[in-house]
Write a structure and sequence with these properties.
This protein is mainly beta.
């Protein structure tokens, strides 16, 4: 019988002979700068192609990557080259799966991106795009764009998609754009993106937003981190903000996401352009964590008297350590889409001003609504260290008094659980309860 050492020697000797005949078919992306393979991909002879077949220039790889994308191959693999793929703006096409290998860095070329809307990757009116890059990075140069050498703008995105259908973005880390990490927008042909999945993505240190959703139908964002936005307003982790009446926010779900350390709100929903004729909105934030922001944790605004019907719901969300309020609902008509908080919790919020309240409902512009309200709380909890109202309503303009504020809020903190509702408020059925102090032996809150 052949001993183990001899058997291993025979096996190792034989493997290269076997692999030499099959390596190009099994792993074709390993071959670099291969004009024959590139021609085959352009001719439709290959389902998978390596971007490096079109060459690689470590000073500017834009043409190599763009030619690979334009080849028409269903799948393009961007291989790890030991140095970043330095690019100018690149345009994606439909029916494309673009996969970045682990360790790949797509880096914006220095002194490029002078156009106010220049983005790393963009696509308009395309179908069937998958962009995947677990442990891969796309990085721009935000500090440069904020300097004197660039015209001031807020549209230099990492990923810019408009009017696209069946769009999947997975695994990427997007950093330091001159606008948004991801922009989901509209075109004249299709005033929304449709069937969009954004999963396991980190949007870090962007100029305007981690993610901006202008118009979308069937959008799921899950397991994402949206952090460190700082540059130009609104500076949110995520902002749902349409531009026109005919745009949509239908079946939009944001789940299991973290919004941390943003200069603006962690979550912002601003619906001013929408009207009663707009398709009813259906927006759900579920199991999200907002923390350590310099502004409001959650903000919903400008849902006017002639605004859309529907529901904006926050379910099982937690907000903590925000400089301003935990939830801020402003210029929200009592008769338009309902805002609903279910099983939400706030801790250590509104710490900037001692007279502030964790939850604030306010009317500032009677040009949007004259009667504000339409907000529901179910099994929500506020953990506070100050003796102050848990919730406050106020009106600078419009008719005095909030309307249709309902539900139940539990509060743990000094003093009694109370709200500061305007005396003229009507149809407000809000139950407030205090929680007993916790002990070392019993960490479960109970009604007091």
């Amino acid at each position: 019988m052949m001993n183990r050492a001899l058997w291993c020697l025979v096996l190792i000797t034989c493997i290269p002979c076997t692999l030499s005949a099959t390596i190009d078919e099994a792993m074709p992306w390993l071959t670099q700068t291969d004009s024959k393979a590139a021609a085959g991909a352009c001719a439709g002879a290959r389902d998978t192609a390596s971007a490096a077949w079109w060459g690689f220039d470590n000073e500017d790889a834009t043409d190599c990557l763009q030619h690979a994308i334009d080849s028409g191959a269903p799948k393009i693999v961007v291989p790890f080259m030991g140095t970043p793929w330095v690019i100018r703006p690149v345009t994606l096409r439909g029916n494309l799966e673009l996969e970045l290998e682990p360790g790949v860095v797509i880096l914006a070329k220095k002194e490029a991106f002078k156009g106010k809307g220049d983005s790393l990757f963009s696509a308009s009116d395309c179908e069937n795009i998958t962009l995947r890059g677990y442990n891969a990075h796309m990085r721009m140069r935000k500090a440069d764009y904020q300097g004197s050498g660039y015209e001031k703008a807020e549209w230099r995105m990492a990923l810019d998609f408009a009017g696209c259908t069946n769009l999947h973005i997975e695994g990427l880390t997007l950093e330091s754009s001159g606008g948004d990490g991801i922009y989901i927008g509209a075109t004249e042909k299709q005033p929304f993106c449709k069937d969009v999945l954004i999963r396991d993505v980190a949007c870090l240190n962007h100029h305007r937003q981690g993610i901006s959703v202008i118009s979308a139908v069937n959008l799921l964002i899950e397991n994402c981190v949206l952090s460190g936005t700082r540059g130009t307003a609104p500076q949110a982790g995520i902002d749902l903000e349409p531009n026109r009446e005919n745009e949509k926010l239908v079946n939009v779900v944001v789940r299991n996401c973290t919004m941390a350390g943003n200069n603006g709100s962690g979550i912002l929903v601003y619906l001013k352009p929408m009207r009663a004729a707009t398709e009813p909105v259906s927006i759900l934030f579920e199991n999200c964590h907002v923390r350590s922001g310099r502004d409001q944790g959650i903000a919903v605004g400008a849902v006017g008297d002639d605004g859309p019907a529907g529901l904006i719901e926050f379910r099982n969300c937690t907000v903590e350590n925000t400089r301003n309020g935990g939830a801020f609902v402003y210029d929200k008509s009592a008769t338009a889409a309902e805002v609903r908080f279910v099983n939400c919790k706030w801790r250590n919020v509104a710490v900037k001003h001692k007279k502030a309240t964790p939850l604030l409902i306010t009317l500032m512009r009677d040009s949007i609504t004259k009667k504000h309200g339409g907000i529901f709380f179910e099994n929500c909890v506020v953990y506070d260290t100050l003796d102050r109202p848990v919730l406050k309503t106020e009106e600078d303009k419009g008719e005095k008094g909030a309307r249709h504020i309902r539900g139940a809020i539990l509060r743990e903190g000094p003093g009694n659980a109370r709200a500061a509702l305007s005396p003229e408020s009507t149809d407000c059925l809000l139950e407030l309860h205090s929680l007993t102090s916790r002990t070392k032996d019993d960490t479960s809150p109970t009604l007091k």
